[in-house]
Amino acid sequence: MRVNETNVKVRYQETDQMGVVYHANYLVWFEIGRTSLIEDLGFNYADMEESGIVSPVVDVNIHYKKPVRYGQRATVKTWVQSYDGIRVTYAYEILTPEGEIAVTGESKHVCVKKDSFKPVSLRRTFPDWHEAYLTALGDA
């Protein structure tokens, strides 16, 4: 299994009155990690979107364990948890500066045509991307 690690510095605007990262900002960090993983695999969303395909989130789960605070650096770990040729589930761990798990989660995505939102097979539309996901999972 291939795991991407991305560091994020907590900015003031990402925190609440207690100086703790506001809960919805972790979803933004998930996206940062997911985009970085995809780039590590040799691809990017812009190329996919230019061909008329988008990959919306269809489900997301997040579990809060410990706070991350203003001025700290967090590590976002991201990997492909499951993939079936159309749907992909990414998993995430966000670590505190001490390496403790602050947040875990998953996001599920499906590739669809941008104009109609009809599902498309990544396997057929982007075979190289398909193979990279299988390799990232350790299935290839």
UniProtKB/TrEMBL annotation:
Family assignment from sequence similarity: Belongs to the 4-hydroxybenzoyl-CoA thioesterase family.
Transmembrane segments: none
Keyword terms, alphabetized: Hydrolase
SUPFAM superfamilies in the record: Thioesterase/thiol ester dehydrase-isomerase
Protein name: Uncharacterized protein
Any one Gene Ontology molecular-function term assigned to this protein's record: fatty acyl-CoA hydrolase activity
